[in-house]
Design brief:
The chain has 170 residues and is α+β, with helices and mostly antiparallel strands. The protein is built from 8 helices and 8 strands. A 6-stranded antiparallel β-sheet has the order 1-7-8-4-3-5.
């Protein structure tokens, strides 16, 4: 019975939270618009109806969330104790610059200039599916990030995910 409930929770979770795949090299036009790649558009069927939210990432990049996913994040943030300064600061910095974007009839999205400036994004952009969000990187920053891959990635995987397999098998 417990396994059935866990399976049901996992199924429900996957209905709510999409997982994005792919790495896409794109170009911004002079107005800061980008054509959403067809392969990525297929992974965003609700985007035209519900919209997307773009925000600053923790590193110098941007993050795009489906509106439903962003609302879940806001629900989590609203549960933080607002009487604690560090919580107020985190919410303020995390949501700073968050903007709703909706693809136009041509399948383009307009990125806010302030966010493009924050991430150092010019013309060349890389979009990467990263679990429940899409990261938006300046091509040069993305390449630099990949050049800094840990020397022993297997060791990092063991440290981050090592206990994960144990807990899912129980």
């Amino acid at each position: 019975m417990v396994n059935f409930i866990l399976l049901l929770i996992k199924y429900y979770h996957n209905l709510i939270m999409p997982h994005f795949l792919g790495e896409f090299e794109c170009k911004l036009d002079a107005k800061g618009r980008m054509m959403v790649p067809a392969n990525l558009r297929k992974q965003l069927p609700e985007a035209e109806r519900e919209g997307l939210v773009i925000n600053r990432g923790f590193e110098k990049h941007l993050v795009v969330y489906p509106r439903k996913e962003w609302d879940l994040i806001l629900d989590d943030l609203s549960k933080l104790n607002q009487y604690e300064k560090k919580n107020r600061d985190f919410v303020r910095y995390f949501t700073r610059g968050a903007t709703e974007i909706v693809p136009d009839a041509a399948g383009r999205v307009l990125f806010p200039k302030t966010l493009l400036d924050y991430a150092g994004i010019g013309t060349d952009v890389v979009l990467t599916g990263n679990l429940n969000k899409i990261e938006v990187w300046a091509q040069s920053a993305y390449d630099a990030q990949l050049d800094n891959e840990p020397e022993n990635f297997a060791k990092l995987a063991e440290e981050v995910m090592g206990n994960k397999a144990k807990s899912t098998n129980e």
